Amino acid sequence: MNSHGLAAIAMISQLLWVPVAIYLSLFRGHGILLAIGIPLGVQSLLSYTISIRKWHAVNNLISQSKDETHLPPQYPSLVPYVGSALSFVWDNAGFLRQATRYGGRLISSRISFLGFEIFAFQDRQTVAKVWKQTSLSSPISIFVYAMKYFFEIPENVLSVYRADTSGPFPKPHRDTNIPPQARVDHITHYGFLQALSGPGWLPTTKRCMNALVSRLEEKGLSEEWTEFEDMSEFFKEWVGASLIESLFGPSMLRINPTFVKNIWVFDEGIPWLARGVPSFLRPSIYKARRAAIAQIRNWYLYAREHFDESYVSPDGDGDPFWGSWLMRYRQKNLLPAEKHNDEVLSKLDLGLAWGVVGNTTPTSTLFAFHIFKDLTLLSRVRDEIETSFGNQDLLDINPSELIKQPLLSSAYAEILRLFIDVFFMVTSAHKDVPLGSYHLPKGRIALINSGISHKDDSFWNTRNGEHPVTSFWAERFLIDPSDPMSGPVAPGVYKPPSREESDRGDGGKAPYFSLKGTEGSWFPYGGGHSICPGRVLAKSAVLFVSVLLARDYDIEPLVERIETTNWRCGLGAEQIKHAIPFRIRKRRR
Ligand code: HEM
């Protein structure tokens, strides 16, 4: 039977309610459940069958259509109103994976959820278009969610963020009339962009490199092996503290020696907070959060007392009390924003501190583990470092050169592909947004998950199955001009333009790092205007950690492999399941 026939039967099934109404009026109270349940059940089954038919029909047609007025196909669900809510809450990653795959390829779909509709965009053409749309460029909705559930920002402040539809750009959206002190989206993101991917990136990266070198020196490692119980803990304390120091400055950690520890207790609690677990069930998370917030406020008082402009370093960015331009900017511009005060800003700064360390630290652990576990890879990494930097003092390495190293860049991109699992939520406040095959109507919410796209075996190059998408292959993102089987994208899915090779000025012979063609499939940092502003700092920090370790130290991980869990599903780096014992010594030269 075709779907018209089924639709007709569904309409006729509505008539079942006529005998039910007669029955109920004649025999009040008798068999009421059966009388309502049977027609409801019949109707649900029929509409489920129809929606399955439509699902197949639309998915088969959609791949040939270029009409942007389409909505993605509706994912079938058996129970009206509740929709897919139960499956989604039970295992959101597993459910989304199923709802966004058809005929072996990633697709987009609409999911009904307690009377609402959520759009799930996973096909790479739509995802790539999402990142290009300026009207989807404000991360404010996810920002408000995190502020509420993770950082306990009071409702009256959240309402300022919700009301701010003026956008993140210097010029407010033309349909809005938000006063300058309430343009919190712009105030916040302007600061991030200037400090992390604009003029502040280099000074911040340099401070981070300095902190990494001196904090590792302080551990007093020698040419004899020293054994540690857990690489994750070692990196949390070392890399985490160095990253915090690069932005919050040395005074912050000196007057609050337990701040980094509190951040990590809080970080471990984030998946609980995301699930709404109350304080009496997990008091340690709430205690660590309170302590960290109090420490930040304590630091405000100290910095206000000691800072004056003459302490700002010649690069115009760092200073010993506020630590960086970004922190001074936030004191000057975010503190006076509507409904903001020290309490609110300290919670927002806790969010920033968590953003700085939360993904970068586990990424650096995973990166170091994979390099040191594979001795062939380690030796190639050491060659790359030797060729590019020779005996240069580590602190003289130019970060802009560091982040161009092909093998290190490829291995880094591969670690992010394999281990960064983030949910992105996008919405357009002012108008419908065309996205190629589909459009996103104004005010509707769409989800995109990086983990699903990062492991799409119809897209990634596995070298004929030799390197499955679930495994680490350091060279996946390297294109070797003499090897047509190389490169991140499966042969046949994307062919790099020949211009890409000649652009590099090395005669086009050496293997080079490339992300071309992966725009809608590799997005560990998000995309478009709301892309993670700390991504270049993160890459330089992680690469510098590996250069420092590979050049000056030997490390032996004492476990064979790392297992991760999806307990943190959608929050960034996957959780490492177990301790990673290892030993370390200075290299003999
Ligand atoms: C491997 C490391 C990192 C990963 C995978 C990562 C990933 C992300 C992602 C997925 C977002 C959300 C983007 C969106 O909403 O569309 C984000 C936001 C953000 N990240 Fe990162 N990040 C990393 C490192 C860093 C570092 C080192 C900083 C440093 C300061 C940082 C600062 C931020 C900030 C401030 C935001 C919020 C931006 C906003 O609201 O516009 N991140 N990051």
UniProtKB/TrEMBL annotation:
Names of the cofactor(s): heme
Source taxon at top rank: Eukaryota
GO molecular function, one term: heme binding
KW Transferase (keyword) present: no
Record region (Disordered): 487-510
Biased composition regions of type Basic and acidic residues, renumbered to the chain: 497-507
UniProt binding sites for heme: 532
Membrane-spanning residues: 6-24
Keywords attached to this entry: Heme, Iron, Membrane, Metal-binding, Monooxygenase, Oxidoreductase, Transmembrane, Transmembrane helix
Gene3D superfamilies: Cytochrome P450
InterPro entries with a match to the protein in the record: CYP450_sterol_14alpha_dmase, Cyt_P450, Cyt_P450_E_grp-IV, Cyt_P450_sf
Family to which the UniProt record says this protein belongs: Belongs to the cytochrome P450 family.
Name of the protein described by the UniProt record: Cytochrome P450
Species the sequence originates in: Clonostachys chloroleuca
